[in-house]
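Design a sequence for this backbone.
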């Protein structure tokens, strides 16, 4: 059996995600008959059925579900290799740093300033995104390194902890919860977080769970910090806020309360495990040193708890 081709995987993923050959063909910009033949050839070569086909529906077999997970990873890896190669092949390659606005504990300006003095430094291109976008950017080669808080899906990534800080519950000042002392997650039953996840279940699990709506019902698109705070003040959502953001965002219409069983968050600098880029290594080292100097001058720096860039 010859090796799987990228084109075959793209065809398969399109059908697996659409579960409809006509829609998949339209998405791929091709006619349906050649797509159906290509999937048939793939199944014969693999000697498995990837789809259950009836006159009414198309569904994945267990073998198809397994291939879908692996195919997505493989296609991401191919796309990442292409993007990293193109970037490094430019006359002036950049170091692409992904982050979420305000989720840097105030460290990013100092990190960038210190990184400029590194011998391996390259011009920095900042890539701002919403929650979860940073991991996707690393996996697809859109970014070389990211500043992001835990929890996140660490598969294929290495990371260096920068600082760990507690989180507080942000609620409207008029909310009955604001009048209480220390709370527990169970006290938040019926409340939702900005991404639509039930607040009493803590953070959205990274893997193995059906994801919640991307935002609160009735809203669409990613929310920035000001929008989230406005929704909290209106009583539409509650939010788990890192202490560093609380200190920078006092508002009389929002109360902050301790949730005893809410775990802290760790701000990290993260990068793809396959990376051997000296500029990435220099950025990681610089970020760790800046964080240590800012929050714990006696802490050792330069050693990753998840690997080395």
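Sequence:
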């Amino acid at each position: 059996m010859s090796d799987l081709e990228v084109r075959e995987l793209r065809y398969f993923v399109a059908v697996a995600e659409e579960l409809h050959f006509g829609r998949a063909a339209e998405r791929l910009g091709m006619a349906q008959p050649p797509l159906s033949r290509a999937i048939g050839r793939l199944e014969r070569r693999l000697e498995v059925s990837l789809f259950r086909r009836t006159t009414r529906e198309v569904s994945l077999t267990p073998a198809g579900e397994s291939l879908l997970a692996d195919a997505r990873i493989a296609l991401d890896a191919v796309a990442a290799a292409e993007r990293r190669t193109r970037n490094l092949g430019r006359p002036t390659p950049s170091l692409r740093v992904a982050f979420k606005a305000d989720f840097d504990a105030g460290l990013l300006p100092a990190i960038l300033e210190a990184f400029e003095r590194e011998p391996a430094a390259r011009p920095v291109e900042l890539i701002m995104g919403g929650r979860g976008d940073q991991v996707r950017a690393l996996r697809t080669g859109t970014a070389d390194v990211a500043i992001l808080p835990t929890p996140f899906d660490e598969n294929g990534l290495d990371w260096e902890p920068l600082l760990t800080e507690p989180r507080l519950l942000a609620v409207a000042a008029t909310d009955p919860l604001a009048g209480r002392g220390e709370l527990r997650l169970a006290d938040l039953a019926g409340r939702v977080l900005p991404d639509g996840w039930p607040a009493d279940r803590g953070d959205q699990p990274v893997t193995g769970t059906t994801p919640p709506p991307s935002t609160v019902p009735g809203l669409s698109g990613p929310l920035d910090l000001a929008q989230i705070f406005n929704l909290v003040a209106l009583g539409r959502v509650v939010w788990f806020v890192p202490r560093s953001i609380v200190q920078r965002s006092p508002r009389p219409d929002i109360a902050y309360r301790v949730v005893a069983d809410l775990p802290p968050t760790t701000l990290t600098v993260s990068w793809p495990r396959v990376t051997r880029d000296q500029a990435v290594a220099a950025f990681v080292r610089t970020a760790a040193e800046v964080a240590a100097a800012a929050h714990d001058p006696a802490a050792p720096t330069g050693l990753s708890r998840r690997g080395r860039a």
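The chain has three domains: 6-84, 90-165+265-295, 167-257.
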